[in-house]
Design brief:
Elements: H1 9-17, E1 26-30, E2 33-38, E3 43-57, E4 67-81, E5 87-103, E6 110-113, E7 152-160, E8 165-177, E9 180-196, E10 200-206, E11 210-211
Antiparallel strand pairs: 1-3, 2-3, 3-4, 4-8, 5-7, 5-9, 6-8, 9-10, 9-11
Length: 212
Amino acid sequence: MNGSTGVPLCLLAAGVLSFVPAQTASADALPDQSRTVTTEDGWQLTVTKTAENLDRVPNLAETAFTREGFVSVRAAADITGAGGVSVNSGTLTLGYQIGCQIDVSNGISLGLAASVGPNVNVMVAPTPGLSVGIGAAALPSVSTTFKPGTITTIPFGTKALAGPHGSITTDQVQIKIDACMGPVSLRSYVIATTSTDTADNSVAVYGDPIWL
């Protein structure tokens, strides 16, 4: 018996486990998303998310409070049109927003495993000009702590554009969330930005929410 509540511990455990979904393997392909905006300088900035797929797997630890899966997704940014002011720089960011319904520890550990592209420095000058680029990289292991009732944003990588087109592609990136009871939801995001001498702009698209 639990001295403070008078409820048998076995019944408490059974009540907790009744909220835990079965750990089964399954997969979902998510629809593509795209948006285009015209900046104040006259450029057309397009951001797209394509080829997103989530493969859910039973977690290796076989615990009731761990979720594990593998995600694949491609992000792209395109700068077109005839703007009146040269683009000085631009970036493309790909990541996920993650939410857990009930935290059963002091926090939730989110593990990622990815390596996206080389780190390089490039100088280019397309008409009317777009400058420096650097490769996108996601660390082999990223850990964060977050509480229930909040949405945590985890970037997979940010790539500085070295021309009018850039992309980030991830294939079978592991996502593992520990100490979470109840549903775990994922939502991908892609953000493209540009900067000129007179204006900064950003465009974002989001994937459909999906459970892990």
